[in-house]
Amino acid sequence: MRKGVDPARLAAFEVLKAVRVDDGYTNLLLPAALARHGLTGRDAAFATELASGTIRRQGTYDAVLAACIDRPLRKVEAKVHDALRLGAHQLLAMRVPTHAAIDTTVTLVRQQVNQGAAGFCNAVLRKVATQDLDAWLAQVAPGDLAVAHSHPAWVVDRLRSALGGRADELPDLLAADNDPPRVTLVARPGRATREELPGTPTAYSPYGVVLDGGDPASVPAIAEGRAGVQDEGSQLVALALVAAPVSGRDERWVDLCAGPGGKAALLAASAASRGAAVTGVELHHHRARLVARAAGAGPGLAGVVQADATQAPIADGSADRVLLDAPCTGLGALRRRPEARWRRTAADLGELVALQRALLAEAVRVLRPGGALLYATCSPVLAETAEVVAATLDAHPGLRLDDARAHLPAVPDADGPLPGTVQLWPHRHGTDAMFLALLRRE
C-alpha cells in the first residue's frame, strides 16, 4: 500500500498554490489550512515554516533548481515547481533528513499530480541533496546577494540606498528579512497591562511582549479585545504620536488609512485617558469593520468612516493629532509578508508615491496649527519616505519637520534619512522597518 501524503506538507502545498493562483496572503491562508488538516502544536509549526520559509526563499531555491534541471524552470508545471521548492526548503534550510524530505515530496507529487512528475521530482531533489546551501550558492551565484538572500535585485538596490552610508549592513538586513517573525502582543493602556500578557517584555515599547509560544487567541486579554497582536515597530508609531506635544486643545484625533486597526486601537486607548477620541478613516468596508472591532466601543473611538482618505470627510484644520500610516510597498515587513517581495515591482513605486503625496497633503489639510501629524510607512525606501516628506514640505510653506526621535528616546541607532525622522530596522531593532516623520503646521 502506498503511503499517504503527510498532512503538514499537504497544507503547505495548498498554501503555496493559493498564493500563486489566487494572490492569497500566506498569513491569512495558513490558519485555515492548519484547521482543515487538524494540525496543532509542532505539526502546525512545521507546516507554517515550510510554507512561509519556502515562499521567502524561493528565489534562492529557483537558482539551485535551475542548476539541477535540463529545461527552463518556466516550463516545469506550476504544481510540480511548488513541490520542488518545498523539497528544496526541507533539504537546504530545515532539519529534515534527506530521505524524509525527498520521499514525502515525491509522495505528495505522485498523489497531487501523477507518477511521471513524481519520478522527475525524485531525480531533481536527489541532485539538490548532493550539496548544502553554501556550496550551491558558491556554484550558482557567487557573491550575488539577491540570490543568496532571495530578494529581487531591484529590492536589494533600494534597500542599499536606504541604508545610506551604512550599506555594509545590507547582508544583515537581507538575512533578517528571512527570519521567521516573532509574535508580539500589545496591552492597550487603560484596558490591559503588560503583566497580563505571557511573554518577554519588548525592548522599546512599554506595552509589548514577545510571545514565548502558543496561540495568541488563547490569551484572555486578546480574546476580550483589551490587547492585540502588533509588531513592536507599529506600536512605536502610535506611541510617538501620542507622546508629541500639541499646543492648546487635544481632543480630536484622526487616523487616516486606519485599517486593519492595530494603531487605531492603541491610539483610542491612549486618547480615552486624555478625554480625546479617534476618528478612523478607511476606504474598504471589511477593513473599516476591522478597525471598529480592534478599537472597540468606548470613549476613545469617535467612529470609523468608510471613505477615500485622499478626500477625507473631515473639516479643514479640525484635527489636533493625525496619523497617516500610508499604503506602501511593504518592503519593511518582508518577514511577516513573505509573498510581498515577489508581488511588488519597481514600477509600483510611481503609483504608490503619488498616492502617498496625495494622502499626506490631505493629512496636512485636516491638521490644525499647533497640532501634530505623524507620517509613517512600513518601508524604508527613500522614494516613499524622505522624498515624500521633502516634497510635502516644499509644497506647504507653513509646514515644518519636528523631531520624532525625541519621542522615542529608548530606541538607539534609529536616525532616519531626514533630520529628526526615525527609521527602524529588523536587523538593528528586531521590528519591521517603519519610517516615522513628525510634522507640524505653523
TrEMBL record:
Key words of the record:
Methyltransferase, RNA-binding, S-adenosyl-L-methionine, Transferase
What PROSITE patterns does this protein map onto?
A: SAM_MT_RSMB_NOP
- In this chain the SAM-dependent MTase RsmB/NOP-type domain maps to 159-442
Residues annotated for S-adenosyl-L-methionine binding in this entry? C257, A258, G259, P260, G261, G262, K263, E282, D308, D325
- Keyword Iron-sulfur applies: no
Record-annotated active site: C378
- Matches recorded under SUPFAM superfamilies: NusB-like, S-adenosyl-L-methionine-dependent methyltransferases
The family database entries (Pfam families) matched by this protein are listed as:
Methyltr_RsmB-F, NusB
InterPro entries tied to this protein: MeTrfase_RsmB-F_NOP2_cat, MeTrfase_RsmB-F_NOP2_dom, NusB-like_sf, NusB_RsmB_TIM44, RCMT, SAM-dependent_MTases_sf
Q: What name goes with this protein?
A: Transcription antitermination factor NusB
The family assignment reads: Belongs to the class I-like SAM-binding methyltransferase superfamily. RsmB/NOP family.
What organism is the protein native to? Nocardioides humi
